[in-house]
Amino acid sequence: MQDAVFELLGNPATYRLPAAAKIARHQTHAAIVFLAEDRALKVKRAVRYPFLDFSSLDKRKAACEAELAINRKFAPQLYRRVVPITREDNGALALDGNGEPVEWAVEMARFDEDKTLDRLAQRGELDERLLAKLAVAVAAMHERAEPVEPTPWIAALEQFIGNSTSTFQRYPALFGETAVIDLERQSLAALNRLRPLLTERGKQGLIRRGHGDLHLGNIAVLDGEPIAFDALEFDPLIGSGDLLYDLAFLLMDLLEFDRQAAANQVLNGYYVAARRDADCDGIAALSFFMSLRAAIRAMTTASRLDVTKDTIARSARRYFDLALKLLAPAKPSVLGIGGLSGTGKTVLARSLAPLRAPAPGALVFRSDVERKAVYGVGEHERLSPSAYRAEVSERVYRILIDKAARVARAGHSAIVDAVFAQAEERAAIETAAAAAGVEFRGLFLVADLTTRVQRVSGRAADASDANAEVARKQEEFVTGPVTWSCVDAASSPAQTLANARAAIT
């Protein structure tokens, strides 16, 4: 029956279009989407997998209705209605006819399919401005998401691991029996280690009904804004999870596309936008979450081995290898980057962050951003001089160092970007890193006054309030003996990065 439905929806006459009109068709393991002019019709395939069951008409109708309901929360401008495919009195099939429904479809507004993030990533078009918007959009989406009872989801994680393992074991030549056993063992060990943390995050309301399928192919750019669509609808339990688990799919997918710097920018942008201190501890689960997302992606990809087998097999294996790689032990560290205003601390921090283990790189904590958060204002709003009193700065440094230490104890790397003009500020972060049991390296950037004034004068839409006057006054700072590695930062950002990397190594 579905073959006849697919033939109907692939026929231009169904939409009253000329015979020469092209109806595009996109197929996944669970659905087929037909694109006709400004419409998109998505039909669930009559399939059953360990993780979903669309084997009956009633189940497919319920899935369509659930898809419409959940996606209207994330992309109301795209999702229109559930439409029947009917058998008419003359025996012919019709789209939205008057006869008995034989299939159901979700009708959406069509958008430019070349503007999904996976297509943009393939073409190298994920620029920093779009990635910044993406991080903010995901944080806002998570803020609207509703908390769920956490216990069932935490309990289901072991089942997710088991489902993946069962699928991998059906393809021993592709995945390797030893590697499958190793991935399952490491995943279960990570889950057992993280269970108390996940339980606590559940109590904090951080396990919610999110998007559930937040990979690059499910985010489109509409009018310059990233919009998530095609949220997971067939199982509320699978569609729920820790907010960092939802984010982890996006980060993992960027890593699979070999976009480490992009993944790091989204991670840091998300942390700034979400402003949740609890995530400094929650970062401990990120590697596991990304690995599990990669394993599930490998499982769903392997389930399609009957379609263009060689290409699908290679994709499944890449995701599987990434799942293993993400669980490999990593050595976290804390890096302090100091220097007067205009020496290029923030640019250097953002360049170094993707290079620090574990993937997708270090969390960056910037004094200018934290100071704005203390006052509850936007990142680009200017503060009055009173916000820079000594006691306020002391508070900001305490927050920065505390966050960096928590992240380090959670097994992740941190970079702290601040002036660090005072010896006691530098000593405090060194002590905190030592107490967390991680390596610390300090870099102090230096540049001449003319260069620094020129740089701060040319800033636009930045969290720093420093201007030329501030840069000149800082010449009077007494830094005392600086034991950190001094880095010449008077040249280009690329040269400063090279100088910094040489100092670190």
Folded structure, characterized:
The protein is of the alpha+beta class and 505 residues long. The chain has three domains: 2-110, 2-Layer Sandwich (Phosphorylase Kinase, domain 1); 117-326, Alpha-Beta Complex (Aminoglycoside 3'-phosphotransferase, Chain: A, domain 2); 333-504, Rossmann fold (3-Layer(aba) Sandwich), CATH 3.40.50.300. The chain has helices spanning 2-9, 57-74, 117-122, 128-144, 150-169, 172-175, 177-203, 236-239, 243-256, 260-274, 279-282, 286-302, 309-326, 345-352, 367-374, 390-409, 423-436, 449-457, 468-473, 493-504; strands spanning 24-27, 31-36, 39-44, 48-49, 52-53, 79-87, 93-95, 100-109, 146-147, 207-209, 219-222, 225-228, 240-242, 333-339, 363-366, 414-417, 439-446, 485-488. Strands 1-2-3-8-6-7 form a six-stranded antiparallel β-sheet, sandwiched between helices. Strand 6 (79-87) and strand 7 form a beta hairpin. The model has no long low-confidence stretch (mean pLDDT 95).
Key terms:
Aminoglycoside 3'-phosphotransferase, Chain: A, domain 2, Rossmann fold, 505 residues, 20 helices
Quick one: biggest sheet?
Answer: 6 strands, antiparallel
N- to C-terminal separation? 64 Å
User: Please, what is the average pLDDT?
Assistant: 95
Major sheet: arrangement of strands:
1-2-3-8-6-7
The name of the CATH topology of the largest domain is: Aminoglycoside 3'-phosphotransferase, Chain: A, domain 2
User: What is the H level of CATH, i.e. the homologous superfamily of the largest domain?
Assistant: Aminoglycoside phosphotransferase (APH), C-terminal lobe
What portion of residues belong to β-strands?
15-25%
